[in-house]
Amino acid sequence: MEKVIVITHGSYGKEILKSVEMIAGKQDNAYSFSIEEDTSIEEVKKQVEDLIDDEAYIYIFVDIYGGSPFNIAINFLSRKKVHIISGFNMPMILEFFVNRNRNVNTMIEDSRKSIMHVNEEMKG
Prior knowledge:
Blueprint: E1 2-9, H1 12-24, E2 30-35, H2 41-51, E3 57-62, H3 68-73, E4 82-86, H4 90-98, H5 104-112, H6 118-122
Parallel strand pairs: 1-2, 1-3, 3-4
């Protein structure tokens, strides 16, 4: 089993999950946590910890390397089946749900290809 946990500043992660589910359908075992000005970091950490078990592969997506969501996630870095991905985008999350057997590094490389200067791409 796999679980996806998205932790972001504001509602960014929650909205990306909603958008991805519009395309790929409802996803089981997908959770999002929003860090707002009044959010208790310790409470979010506890909620994330409650989702982590040794049976499931856990993929934690955070928005910014070194930010509060990242600092929550690294508490679980020592767990064998936890993978933390920083700086995700919507194509990465979509690809993950469409093809869950992907290698994490391949998924990251493929998502980088979705970032482009369209003007340059469309020149013929």
